Amino acid sequence: MFAFTRRRRSPPPSSLFLDDDKMSGRKGFTPLHSQELGAESYAGILKEPKDFKSMDPGNGDIKSLLKSPSMGLRRSVSGRVSFSENEFANRLKGRRSTSVQAVPYSLADLQKSTDNFAPGRLLGEGSIGRVYRAKYPDGKVLAVKKIDSSHFQGQKPEEFSKLVTNISKLHHPNIAELVGYCSEQGHNMLIHDYFRNGSLHEFLHLSDDFSKPLTWNTRVRIALGVSRAIEYLHDVCSPSIVHKNIKSSNILLDLELNPHLSDYGMASFHLRTSQNLGMGYNAPECAQPSAYTLKSDVYSFGVVMLELLTGRMPLDNQRPRSEQCLVKWARPQLHDNDALAGMVDPALRGLYPPKSLPPFADIVALCIQLDPNLRSSIAEVVQALVRLVQQSTINMREDLSASCRTNDSEY
């Protein structure tokens, strides 16, 4: 096992549940075991995926993703999948049996668990409100998103109830599901599980000298999991849900480093704010949040994939002018294999399979096309990432077999 160090010291972290850029206080990371998959962990992935039942972090993460937790993966990408209202309700009903349902919390309960929303409990602040950490005597920890009351000025009281109803219907292994809500005395709050490992943004950009970087296999697994979450919003939900704020700070990581997409279902709030959402993530056609489409989400996801590949932020004024915008710097190099090797996050220290880089870069290139009509659909992205995982498995088996033959010849 190797220990790695990062390029920079840690500034304050990004928010866990908002698009926030203003932060308070640095929080520590939970010690983690390596998520790198050894050759033995790949055995049987392609043979009998139906037999995989465990989510053991050492050998189950890639397998579980190949089982397609996304309910609406299209067999053909030529046509749009459509679901009747009853079909969609039935699909959601099937998931609800194993999903936590949103429950009401009292204002008094949340005030007590957050020390009356004390500054020391503040996790982050964004365009629609603040997120606080709620702690309970039994050890339970939740994240409470307190929506700014200005967003409900002129709105009927039923608007928040409608928001809660819509979000609570959404269940997928790779989204941060709503577990509770509160609407009392003019306060409107959404409650989620608290993810102790924070966000992908923190792991990639804010790691300190004692943090271990994400391995290449974990990065691919995160990309596949997030793409499945977006596919669920785009192709399973009816009508389709455009996220409008996909970025690394809205991708939360659990203890096994499985990704959970947050801030979904909040598009109506983004239309009411003049704040630029996700600097560096917005597609060229999106001068205003109202201009977002499904393909705009795909573009933003492509930027996240670039972060996973390079370890760079979407916008970084500390770099030379020609490298400050990640997409503009990376786009011309994505099809140049020699340049591609130089783009890889230095934190990986060369510990990645070179054969995986070109197909990964090809997926990115299709996501960040300037013309939205030329971008891949998210279903195509999911399928491409699955093929990448499968091909990586085959390559690893071949390398392992070649290594065994070499060792045998020495005796």
From TrEMBL:
One term of GO molecular function: protein serine/threonine kinase activity
Alphabetized UniProt keyword annotations: ATP-binding, Kinase, Membrane, Nucleotide-binding, Serine/threonine-protein kinase, Transferase, Transmembrane, Transmembrane helix
Protein name: Protein kinase domain-containing protein
Cellular compartments annotated: Membrane
Keyword Transferase applies: yes
Bias type Basic residues, positions: 1-10
Source species of the chain: Gossypium raimondii
SUPFAM superfamilies: Protein kinase-like (PK-like)
Annotated stretches, region: Disordered: 1-31
PANTHER family reported for this sequence: OS01G0709500 PROTEIN, OS01G0750732 PROTEIN
GO cellular component: membrane
Domain annotation Protein kinase: ranges: 117-394
